[in-house]
Design brief:
The structure is a single chain. It is built from eight helices and no strands. By secondary structure, it is mostly helical. It is elongated and about 90 Å long.
């Protein structure tokens, strides 16, 4: 599990729930109609804005924020150095036989084995990065839109509650509880937007940036192998992508 995500959820929920408990009455923060308006309204507006396939993919991507990163940039650099060693020892054509589950790495090895032009490798990199950005941007945009919708539906719930409250002004005892319920929907919307949807979009963007960095390392490594089939040269060049502490 990603420690930062787990820590953020625990601390954030702990502080909010702790503040509620310190205030005394906990049950006043539970309002079914308000939840229906905010949760249901946000989901409905999102489904109107996006195709259902994108919404399903977005909710499926939520699980990705809890997973720790299995592959680090240093691992990708080490992989490309090993590829350079194989090409130096057995020749560029030998890279066609490399077995890997990484589709991009497999494509890079094929380009090297074919002795592809540097411009072709650069163009392939740009296509891969552009396609990835577009796919991931749609999922991120779903949560950004939900972050925008949630406070709006919270305000709608508040207005509904105020109308209901004003219709019962003849009974002063009901004004206080009715006002609390009306404001509660604004709380729901702000909480979902600030604590859930925006952080999810931000975490997914950081994962996208990490994957793009891996692509850049792979394709720059491929170009370096073609330019100078020397593992030491490839290692020194790709080390520029790493923080000083991770460089060997």
């Amino acid at each position: 599990m990603d420690i930062a995500t787990f820590f953020g959820i625990i601390v954030g929920l702990g502080l909010v729930i702790g503040a509620i408990f310190l205030g005394g009455a906990v049950d006043v923060f539970v309002n079914l109609p308000g939840m229906m308006i905010v949760f249901g309204g946000t989901l409905a507006a999102t489904c109107i804005n996006f195709p259902v396939e994108d919404v399903i993919k977005a909710f499926g991507a939520v699980f990705q924020i809890f997973k720790s990163r299995k592959v680090k940039p240093a691992d990708v650099v080490s992989t490309m150095v090993r590829v350079a060693e194989i090409s130096r020892r057995e020749g560029l054509v030998a890279l066609e036989k490399i077995q890997t589950d990484n589709v991009v790495l497999k494509k890079a090895c094929q380009l090297i084995a074919d002795n592809a032009d540097h411009d072709l490798i650069t163009q392939t990199l740009m296509i891969e990065i552009s396609a990835m950005r577009k796919r991931h941007a749609i999922i991120q945009d779903v949560f950004k839109k939900m972050a925008a919708y949630a406070p709006g539906f919270g305000m709608i719930g508040t207005l509904i509650g105020l109308v209901q409250m004003l219709s019962k002004l003849d009974d002063p005892k009901t004004i206080g509880p009715a006002m609390a319920v009306a404001i509660l929907t604004t709380f729901y919307g702000a909480f979902l937007s600030t604590f859930c949807f925006l952080p999810i979009a931000g975490k997914l963007k950081s994962r996208t940036d990490q994957e793009i960095l891996h692509l850049q390392i792979i394709f720059e490594g491929a170009k370096s192998i073609l330019e100078n089939n020397n593992p030491r040269f490839v290692s020194d060049m790709l080390a520029s992508f790493l923080p000083p502490a991770d460089r060997k």
